[in-house]
Amino acid sequence: MKTNKILNTGLALLFSAGFTFTSCVDTGSNLVDFDPSLETPNDTVYSLLGIINKMQAIADRTIVLGEVKGDLASVTDAALLDIANLANYTAGTDNQYNKPEDYYAVIQNCNYYISKADTNLAFRGEKVFIREYAAVKAYRAWTYLQLAIHYGKVPFFTKPLLTELEADPSLYPKYDVKQICDYFIKDLAPYVETDLPDLGGTFSSYFIPVRALLGDLCLWAGRYLEAATYYHDYLTHVDNPIPVGLNYMRWNNSDFQGASGTYSATSSVLCYIPMEASEYDGIISELDDVFTSTEDNQDYYQVTSSSGYAELSAAQRYVLVYTNPSTQLQDTISPADDFVYSDEMMRGDLRYSSVFTFGKSAGTDGFSERTQSIQGKFPTNGVLLYRPAALYLRMAEAYNRAGFPQSAFAILKYGLFNTAISRYISEDERQRAGSLLTWSQYNFTVDNTQGIHSNGSGNADADTTYVIPDDLTSLEDSILFVEDKICDEMALELVFEGSRFGDLQRIALHRDDPQFLARKVAARGGKNNFNNELFERLKDKNNWYLPLE
To answer: How far apart are CA 419 and CA 45, in angstroms?
Structure first.
């Protein structure tokens, strides 16, 4: 039975391989083989870095499962059967991307660490291991969340399995995503003020921010006000405020000729899983060979952007605030519907053309012409987990569901800073939202904050059509309208970052409407290629998940 294999594999990994390490953390390998005592800083640091090694095994899969099962990606004729089956929701237990045992290897090692680390050991009044202890708890919670997203209900245990008898799955309850989130919200809350481990250099970016993760867990659990508070407090923290930034692609002039900007999804990374530079050193990321033309795949990339995503991008209205040189008067202008672009990818939102580049290659034989695809969503040194824009969009989702749609929409259109808050959010909503709309006038200004829609659609704050309609008669109608806009913005901003299937699933679950996800995924082929067979399959949410056995 597959489930037995899962838990027994985790047991084997704990005792036979031990905590292993690779060169990206420069610690050697197999430093601990059996029942290690975690009583010195070196013990806990080595064990922590060993857990990061286990995280490397699931890093690429986070992106592949999150995108191939969503609506923004389309498989090519060169796709391996395992990739195609993921996209069609027909993957079996033998699919190379269906390896829950790798997730349980992380969990097993986290459970062991948590059970062995001496959290009472103190030096000069400070607990020696508390930072690493909190980081490991965050890894465990994040990994369980990924399991629930992709497998539905999963065996749940928080103690290390030390014998083969304990690896019997029937001994453990199966938790769904809400049960997992509720458990870990309580488990992580005491560590919300605990600093990340300080190992020097770039190591701090290896660790998941507890407060941001608590926002995610609360959002999945439907605890929207708590989620909004965790996101707000993380992004506005006095010791490390994180503005959304001015990260955009814009047309250079009023003739809509030539586009430039600073847009890059990898320029402001909060957390990532580090990967090796070569296979000799350990686990490398192979995402480029799946999503991009490389020498290794001879331009036969397996996954590309979907027609549905291209249509969504093209449907956005680009608005430019234009100053007439003769009159010095400002006006807002947009390309005409029949405007002829040098590249149709530049119609609408410019993030599409910024992220994806398509060309022609002669191929390795020098004769056969092939389409070549390059896309810029994968950092060269690891696999991205958290960046500011993603957290702002999840915060918008939480604000909206908590009953503050104007505040949520402001994140998309204006950004949250004091001037925008007082001008564009009603007094009633400001009073109800309370401290959620407290933003430092010094740390968040028009100089470092804009609506996320402006990242690719010009001056979104000046777009008179990008608004919450006045004829929506109820708060619930406004919430649903804004949630649709947030979902679209998540697509435009976070495409190919591994979160899309989860975003669609979460919104569908909160709406109690499986057809929401089914309709989006079935429309990935574009408006003229709706996949009715896939739609019917995904109307049953039991078909969303990979089989455990």
So the answer is: 45
DSSP assigned state of 32:
B
CB-count exposure of residue 368 (10 Å: 0-12, 13-18, 19+): exposed
CB within 8 Å of 380: residues ≥ 6 apart: none
Average pLDDT over residues 259-281: 89
Q: Quote the CA–CA distance of 39 and 379 in Å, as a whole number.
A: 35
State the amino acid at position 488 in one-letter form.
Answer: D
Dihedrals phi, psi of 261, to nearest 5 degrees = 160, -170
26 pLDDT higher than 70: no
pLDDT tens string 452-496:
999 999 999 999 999 999 999 899 999 999 999 999 999 999 999
Contacts of 120 (CB under 8 A, 6+ apart): 127
How far apart are alpha carbons 300 and 83 in whole angstroms? 13
Query: Residue 537: what pLDDT?
Result: 98
- Residue labelled with tokens 């064990």: 47
Distance in angstroms (rounded) separating the CA atoms of residues 193 and 210: 8
The mean per-residue pLDDT over the stretch 157-182 comes to 93
Q: The tokens of 182 are what?
A: 């509720």
Q: CA dist 293 to 5, 63, 97, 369, Å?
A: 36, 17, 21, 13
Per the CB < 8 A criterion, the answer to whether 309 and 525 are in contact is no
> DSSP labels for 84-100?
HHHHHT---TT-TT--H
CA distance 217 to 240: 22
The CA distance from 48 to 298, in Å, is 38
% of the chain with per-residue pLDDT over 90:
73
DSSP for 121-146, please give it.
-EETTEETTHHHHHHHHHHHHHHHHH
Which SS3 state, helix, strand or coil, does residue 362 take?
coil
Least confident range from 81-90, 123-132, 311-320, 423-432: namely 123-132
Whether the CB-CB separation of 351 and 313 falls below 8 Å is answered with yes
Distance CA 154, CA 136 (A): 20
Distance CA 419, CA 453 (A): 18
> Tokens in use for 166?
């304990």
pTM: predicted TM-score of the whole model, two decimal places = 0.93
Tens of pLDDT, residues 475-484 = 999 999 999 9
Nearest to 335 by CA among 249, 251, 256: 256
Better-predicted residue by pLDDT, 541 or 342:
541
Dump the DSSP string for 290-329: HHS--TTTTT--SEEE-HHHHHHHHTSPPBEEEE-TTT--
Residue 330 binned pLDDT confidence (cut-offs 50, 70, 90): confident
CB 63 within 8 A of CB 496: yes
What residue type is 505 in one-letter code? Q
509: left (phi over 0), alpha (psi -120 to 50) or beta: alpha
SS3 at position 38 = coil
Identify the bridge partners of residue 319 per DSSP, sorted by sequence position.
458
- How does DSSP classify residue 197? P
What gap in Å lies between CA 502 and CA 499, rounded to an integer?
Answer: 5
